[in-house]
Design goal:
Strand content: 5-15%
Structural class: alpha/beta
Distance between the termini: 33 Å
Number of helices: 10
Helix content: 40-55%
Order of helices and strands: EHEHEHEHEHEHHHHH
Shape: elongated
Number of strands: 6
Largest sheet: 6 strands, parallel
Length: 219
Amino acid sequence: MDIKIILVEDHELTRKGISYGLKPFKNIKISGEFENGKQAVDFIRTCPIQDVPDVVLMDIAMPVLNGIDASKRIMAINSDIKIIMLTSIDEKETVLNAFASGAKAYAMKNINIDKLEGIIKMVMNNEVWIAPEIAHYILDVFSGMEQIESVKPVNDFKLTNREKEILSLISKGMSNKDIANKLIISLYTVKNHVKSIIQKLAVEDRTQAAILALTEKIV
């Protein structure tokens, strides 16, 4: 089944470039292109059910209605739509507001098109993705909390008990060496577990693994 996507980007050249870059992926269908958030919201509000997008690739800094406010309105209309922020903005407040608005991923515009296609598949799988260069903003928020409500995870990603234990320590900011000392296992063993964790969570590094663990209540 095709993944229906709309592009929301005020710069025509960028918008057309993204559309052209995604064209070779046969499972992705660009069903609409818009210059601002209001146009996208109006489309989603009035389009036939068969044309409702699965994913919105959303710029943030746009005229008329910015991407964050547009995302809030889209979520109010249909919370099943997955929003990927695709932007050049890397300020902490904007990143946090983007996720608060309902975004499932935050990518920078210099991203490789193959990686963007992978992120689209990830959000369709109900996974979260955060660009490595801004991931620490989210981790800072969680590390500042005294505790996170204990909720049974929807998906434990088939992690072993040892992997969950190590992921919990990663989420607390511990290095591989610290984890090895705490668990009284070799550094080599820790590295192998971390590699397995990253693969199972389908993330790029241990920081993104920690963020996903916290957002999905895995640990």
